């Protein structure tokens, strides 16, 4: 029997649970012509959620595609992926399709390669200086709006891991050109997804950056227990009580990826080793995960300075509301507020911790917090 819990890739169908409120709010916002910015730490389910939204929007006849900035390494790359994505949404006869492409990308006049038959793929070979100088970027970023006008449709572009744009050569130029084109669009809306809170804030909340205030912000949270319990019970089988599902969630803190991962290993533990599903199985799987990830955790630990480790330990102990409160600083001998400020920024930049909407500083990875706890206990 196949393991019913999946982690590490986009989940769809009955592997995807809930998020109904988010799906309808995001879909409605995009259809109303507004842009969205969707933030959460890695592995909270942004891509999976947007694939759901995208499915829904496509069913309604809209043109939708996703550009994953993790895969884009250069301006030419972006050009190629963007243009082919528009082309691949078109199912017109070849002649009509070619004339549309030439119409919306006149400067570039891309070469069209057909592979496989019936699904045209655009191949572009334009030297970088031409791309930068000849207004071709403006043409590219206006192309979907032109296309939608011709087809009398609405369009939605999803930019996944958008913060990675700043790592590409010419990233600043692309950001500027995107903004100056997108702001005039009436038929196309844009969704920007990102995993690094600080980088994303820099792009969308800084008055001096082109994308300042460019859309409605959505912060994706973990999935609530009521939904998880039902999902875990159903997939784990009748041996699994609501109490047991709750115990699992205490460990994973409802984190989408880690909950699926934990359940995956627990399912495997009970099925392949014929063990009963009980409290000791849960404890053993937890120990196995911590042991297996020992190298990964110590690597995270080694990457930060002593001052940062000290602060991280204090946060692991309390997940405080107010980090600068005198009693918290004193309790953990953290020194002055200014030295804490620097360490805190680094921990936030690295996404080890995040500021929860209640103001509390919490760990992104619940196993890393446990690892710090268990090492602290062992040492002292
Ligand atoms: N709605 C969901 N239902 C069940 N599992 C989910 C859901 N969203 C995310 N997950 C789990 O989290 C993992 C990461 O999801 P993904 O969409 O890749 O996150 P992100 O794009 O935020 O990094 C998935 O492989 C799956 O295990
Ligand atoms: Mg993703």
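^ structure tokens above, recovered residues below v
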């Amino acid at each position: 029997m196949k393991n019913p819990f999946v982690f590490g890739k986009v989940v769809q169908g009955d592997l995807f649970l809930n998020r109904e409120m988010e799906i309808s709010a995001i879909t409605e916002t995009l259809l109303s012509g507004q842009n969205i910015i969707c933030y959460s730490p890695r592995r909270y389910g942004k891509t999976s959620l947007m694939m759901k939204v995208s499915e829904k929007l496509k069913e309604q006849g809209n043109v939708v595609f996703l550009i994953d900035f993790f895969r884009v390494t250069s301006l030419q790359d972006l050009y190629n992926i963007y243009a082919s994505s528009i082309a691949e949404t078109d199912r017109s006869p070849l002649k009509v399709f070619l004339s549309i492409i030439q119409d919306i990308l006149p400067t570039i006049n891309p070469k069209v390669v057909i592979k496989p038959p019936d699904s045209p793929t655009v191949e572009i070979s334009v030297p970088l200086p031409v791309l930068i100088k000849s207004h071709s970027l403006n043409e590219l970023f206006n192309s979907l709006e032109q296309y939608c006008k011709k087809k009398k449709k609405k369009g939605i572009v999803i930019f996944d891991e958008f913060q990675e744009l700043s790592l590409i050569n010419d990233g600043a130029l692309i950001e500027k050109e995107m903004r100056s084109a997108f702001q005039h669009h009436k038929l196309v809306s844009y969704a920007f997804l990102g995993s690094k809170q600080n980088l994303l804030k820099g792009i969308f909340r800084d008055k001096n950056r082109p994308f300042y205030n460019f859309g409605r912000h959505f912060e994706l949270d973990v999935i609530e227990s009521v939904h998880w319990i039902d999902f875990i019970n159903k997939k784990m089988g009748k041996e699994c009580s609501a109490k047991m599902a709750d115990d699992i969630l205490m460990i994973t803190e409802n984190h989408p990826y880690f909950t699926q991962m934990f359940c995956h290993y627990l399912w495997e533990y009970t099925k392949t080793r014929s063990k009963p599903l009980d409290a000791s199985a849960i404890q053993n799987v937890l120990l196995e995960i911590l042991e297996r990830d020992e190298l990964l955790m110590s690597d995270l630990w080694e990457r930060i300075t002593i001052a940062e480790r000290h602060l991280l330990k204090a946060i692991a102990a309390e997940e405080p509301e107010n980090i600068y409160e005198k009693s918290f600083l004193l309790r953990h001998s953290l020194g002055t507020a200014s030295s804490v400020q620097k360490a805190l920024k680094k921990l936030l930049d690295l996404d080890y911790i995040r500021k929860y909407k209640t103001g509390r500083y919490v760990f992104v990875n619940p196993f890393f917090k446990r690892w710090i706890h268990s090492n602290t206990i062992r040492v002292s």
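The longest strand covers residues 188-194.
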